[in-house]
Write a structure and sequence with these properties.
Number of domains: 5
Distance between the termini: 34 Å
Strand order of the largest sheet: 14-26-25-24-15-22-23
Number of strands: 26
Helix content: 40-55%
Structural class: alpha+beta
Shape: elongated
Length: 732
C-alpha cells in the first residue's frame, strides 16, 4: 500500500468575472483522513530500517480498518489512516511485533527527536559478545574441550542474539523473511551442524554491524533535526506586569513583543517594530551577506542579529515559523520517492523470496543427486541465507535522498520530494518569468497616462486596487502614492497572471496587463499608443486600468535586473540547459531585459493559458522547468515538470505551489539544484551498484564453498554500512 502526491487545482469565481485556477495543493505525498476516518501518527523507536517497515506493512496492510500507511524511517514515524476507534488496537498490533509506539500529538515540535536508548550499554554488550566469540574461535583452533567452546559460543550468542531471535520468531510467525528471520535460521543451522564458534562470530558481528549502521542512520536523522535546533530555547518577551522576561520559545504566542540583543539568534518569526541592525539570514536562506533590517521588515527564527538591538512583533508561534515549516517539509519530502527509489522497493520485494527459494534448493537438491553430503550443502545454503536480505539495497536510497534534501534546505532550497531532486539532472529547458525572477521585482513608477478629464477618481480607483494586490507592479503604484485616499472596493478578486479586479461605483474595474484589457474588449486611445512608444524605448513595463470598455489609465514602471543573473544563465548553459523568457509583460520591456542578460529566445504579452501551451510544446522534447514567483505563475509552475518558486521566503503560497522553493530569491540556486541532483544520482548509482556487486560476489563464493558465514555477515550488514556512509557524504 502506498500513497502518492497529485497536482490539485481549484477554481473560484466572483461577481465581476470568472477566476482562474489557484495554485496546486500541498504535495505531502499522503492523503489526510476523510469523513468517517481517523489519522494517527505514531513514533516507533525500533522502526529504523526496512526490516521493521516490511513487517509492520505486512501486519497492518491487510487489515480492513487500515486505509493508508505512510512510513518515515528517518524520523521513525508511521502515519495511519484508519477507521474510528482503531487507534488503541493499532498500538496493540505494533506491540505484538515487539515494538513500542507513542502517539504523536499535533503540538509535537517539528524535528522532535526520538530516544535511541542507552548507547553505552549497547556498545558494551555487543563488544563483550565479539570478544567472547573471538575467544570461542581461538579455543576451537587450540583444540580446547568441546564443552568450553560450546559454553563460550552460547554465551556470545546470549549477549547479542536474544533480541535477534525474538524479532526473527515474530517475523517467521507472520511469514516475513526479513534479516532477523534469516539470521536466526542461519545461526541455528550452524549450531545444529556443530559450527559453534562460527555461529557465535556470525551473531556477534551481525550485532556489531547493526549497531554501527543504526548510529550512522542517527547521524542522517539528526541532520534534519539540526535544521530546527539552531533556534534558541528562550526568547525575551515583553510583559506588562514584569517587563522583559525570558520565556521558552515553544510557549510564546503570535502577537507578543520580543527583543533580540546584538549577536543573538532570533527565536521566532516577526516584524521589526523598533531598531535597526544587519541580520545574517544564512541559516535560513544560504545567502552570504547580512541583510539590514529596520521597522516594518520581516525577520526569521534562526537568523543571527548583528550589532543593533531589535524589537519585533511575533507573527508565528514556534510550530509555524518558517524554519519549522522548512523542517517539516524536508521530513515530508522523503515520502515523495524518486523513480530509482520506487524501483529498488519493487525489486527488493521479489529478490528475497527468490534467494530463499534458491537456498532451499541448494540445501536439498545436490545431496539427493549424490553430489555431496547434506551438511556440506546445508552450510552453503545457510551462507546464502545470511546475504539474502536486501537491507543494503533498500536503505541505500532513503538515506541518500534525505541527506541531499537536508543539504538543499541548509542552502536556502526547499525541495518538495526526492522525485524532483533526482529528476532535476534531466532538465533540458528552463522557462523564466521576467518580473521577480530576472529583475528585482521592485519596480518604481516612472510616469502615468490618464484618459479623459477625471484624473482624481481614476487614480483613486487604481490606488485602491493596487493597495490590495501584492504584485510588484501594483506595489510600485502604492509606493509612489498615486492618490492620497482609497475607496471601498467590492467583490475584489486577484486573477493570477492577469491582475486584480473589483467593483467601484457599480463599475467593474480591472488593474493589470494590456492583454487582459484586450481580452475584455477594452480599447486604447491613439494618444496612449504614442505615450507607450516613448516609454517602451526605455524598456518600461505597463499596468493598465480599464472598465471593460476602454483603458482609462496606464502606468509606466521600470525594474532593475538582479545581480548574478548572467552568471546563473552561463552556469545553466554550461550544463546543457536551454533558457528562454515567457512573460506577460510587453514585448519592448521583455526584449530589453532579454538583451541585457543575453537570452535570445523570449515570448511576451502571454496570458497564463498561453504560458501553459508554450510549456506543453517544450515538454514534448524533454524535461522542462518553470521559474516564477509562485503566485501569479501558479498554473505554469503546476504544468512544468519541475516548478521553481523565486522569492518564496515566508510565502506559504509559494512554498505550497512549487516543487522547489528558492528562499533567498537567487537564480544561481537553480544550477545548484542541478549539480546536487547529479551528485545524488551518482551516489544512488554507487550505492545500488555496491550493494548488488557485493551480493553477487558472495553468492558466487557461497555456491563454490569459498565463503564462510561470518564473511557473509560482512557481505550483508557491511554493505549496508558502506552505502549509509557513502550517502552521508551528501551532507557536505
Amino acid at each position: 500500500m502506498s500513497t502518492s502526491s497529485t497536482h490539485t487545482h481549484h477554481g473560484h469565481s466572483a461577481a465581476c468575472c470568472a477566476g482562474t485556477p489557484a495554485p496546486k495543493a500541498s504535495q505531502s505525498g499522503f492523503s489526510s483522513a476523510g469523513d468517517g476516518q481517523e489519522q494517527s501518527t505514531l513514533r516507533i523507536e525500533q522502526m529504523d530500517c526496512p526490516t521493521e517497515e516490511g513487517l509492520i506493512r505486512k501486519v497492518l496492510g491487510n487489515r480492513a480498518e487500515v486505509y493508508a500507511l505512510e512510513f518515515d524511517l528517518m524520523q521513525r514515524k508511521l502515519n495511519v489512516v484508519h477507521s474510528p476507534g482503531f487507534r488503541s488496537q493499532l498500538q496493540g498490533l505494533i506491540a505484538q511485533l515487539g515494538m513500542s509506539s507513542e502517539l504523536e500529538s499535533p503540538a509535537t515540535e517539528p524535528g522532535a527527536k526520538v530516544a535511541s536508548g542507552n548507547a553505552w550499554s549497547s556498545w558494551l554488550r555487543i563488544g563483550a559478545a565479539v570478544v567472547v566469540a573471538l575467544v570461542a574461535e581461538s579455543a576451537s583452533w587450540l583444540q580446547a574441550p568441546s564443552w568450553l567452546v560450546l559454553l563460550l559460543s552460547v554465551a556470545a550468542i546470549g549477549l547479542c542474539g536474544l533480541g535477534v531471535y525474538k524479532k526473527g520468531w515474530i517475523a517467521i510467525r507472520h511469514r516475513d523473511l526479513n534479516i532477523n528471520a534469516l539470521m536466526s535460521i542461519a545461526v541455528t543451522g550452524a549450531l545444529v551442524l556443530g559450527e559453534w564458534p562460527e555461529a557465535a562470530m556470525v551473531m556477534s558481528l551481525f550485532g556489531l554491524a547493526e549497531l554501527i549502521e543504526a548510529r550512522s542512520l542517527d547521524r542522517a536523522r539528526s541532520a534534519v533535526d539540526r535544521l530546527l535546533s539552531i533556534t534558541p530555547d528562550l526568547v525575551d518577551v515583553w510583559s506588562a506586569e514584569q517587563g522583559w522576561v525570558s520565556e521558552k520559545a515553544v510557549n510564546v504566542q503570535a502577537g507578543a513583543l520580543a527583543k533580540v540583543l546584538p549577536g543573538q539568534r532570533l527565536g521566532l518569526d516577526g516584524i521589526v517594530e523598533l531598531g535597526s541592525s544587519a541580520v545574517n539570514q544564512a541559516p535560513i536562506t544560504g545567502e552570504s551577506e547580512a541583510v539590514t533590517k529596520s521597522a516594518g521588515d520581516v525577520v526569521y527564527a534562526g537568523s543571527i542579529n548583528g550589532m543593533g538591538e531589535l524589537q519585533y512583533r511575533i507573527t508565528a508561534d514556534y510550530d509555524h515559523s518558517l524554519l519549522a515549516r522548512i523542517t517539516h517539509s524536508v521530513q515530508q519530502a522523503q515520502q515523495n520517492k524518486a523513480p530509482i527509489q520506487r524501483f529498488v522497493d519493487r525489486f527488493s520485494r521479489i529478490y528475497t523470496p527468490v534467494v530463499v527459494a534458491v537456498a532451499a534448493a541448494i540445501a536439498v537438491t545436490p545431496p539427493l543427486l549424490g553430489m555431496g553430503t547434506f551438511s556440506e550443502w546445508v552450510y552453503k545454503a545457510l551462507v546464502l541465507l545470511v546475504i539474502a536480505c536486501p537491507c543494503a539495497l533498500v536503505i541505500s536510497t532513503p538515506v541518500a535522498v534525505v541527506s541531499a534534501l537536508t543539504l538543499a534546505a541548509r542552502q536556502g532550497l526547499l525541495v518538495k520530494g526526492g522525485v524532483y531532486l533526482e529528476r532535476a539532472r534531466q532538465i533540458k529547458y528552463v522557462i523564466l518569468d521576467k518580473t521577480g525572477t530576472l529583475t528585482e521585482g521592485r519596480p518604481s513608477l516612472q510616469d502615468m497616462f490618464i484618459a479623459g478629464e477625471h484624473a482624481e477618481p481614476v487614480k483613486q480607483v487604481a490606488y485602491s486596487l493596487a493597495m490590495r494586490s501584492d504584485h510588484p507592479a501594483s506595489q510600485a503604484l502604492v509606493q509612489a502614492k498615486v492618490h492620497e485616499d482609497t475607496i471601498e472596493i467590492q467583490d475584489f478578486m486577484a486573477v493570477p497572471g492577469k491582475g486584480v479586479q473589483g467593483l467601484a461605483g457599480n463599475i467593474c474595474y480591472r488593474l493589470g496587463s494590456k492583454a487582459w484589457a484586450a481580452a475584455e474588449g477594452a480599447g486604447a486611445q491613439a494618444m496612449l499608443t504614442q505615450w507607450e512608444a516613448g516609454w517602451q524605448a526605455r524598456g518600461a513595463s505597463f499596468v493598465y486600468l480599464h472598465d471593460g470598455k476602454t483603458i482609462v489609465a496606464a502606468f509606466a514602471v521600470n525594474d532593475a535586473i538582479k545581480s548574478g543573473v548572467k552568471t546563473a544563465l552561463q552556469r545553466l548553459r554550461s550544463q546543457g540547459v536551454s533558457v528562454s523568457i515567457a512573460s506577460g509583460d510587453n514585448e519592448h520591456a521583455v526584449r530589453a531585459v532579454a538583451t541585457a542578460v543575453g537570452i535570445d529566445e523570449f515570448q511576451a504579452d502571454l496570458l497564463p493559458e498561453e504560458k501553459l501551451t508554450l510549456l506543453t510544446q517544450h515538454q514534448q522534447t524533454g524535461v522542462v522547468a518553470m521559474v516564477g514567483d509562485g503566485i501569479n505563475d501558479a498554473p505554469a509552475l503546476a504544468q512544468a515538470d519541475i516548478g521553481f518558486a523565486m522569492g518564496a521566503l515566508g510565502s506559504d503560497v509559494a512554498i505550497e505551489t512549487a516543487d522547489v522553493a528558492i528562499l533567498n530569491d537567487d537564480l544561481n540556486k537553480i544550477p545548484d539544484v542541478l549539480q546536487l541532483s547529479k551528485r545524488l544520482h551518482r551516489v544512488l548509482v554507487q550505492n545500488i551498484s555496491t550493494a548488488l556487486a557485493i551480493k553477487a560476489i558472495f553468492l558466487g563464493l557461497a555456491m563454490t564453498g569459498g565463503a564462510s558465514m561470518w564473511m557473509a555477515v560482512f557481505a550483508d550488514v557491511g554493505a549496508s554500512l558502506l552505502v549509509v556512509l557513502n550517502s552521508l557524504r551528501l551532507l557536505r
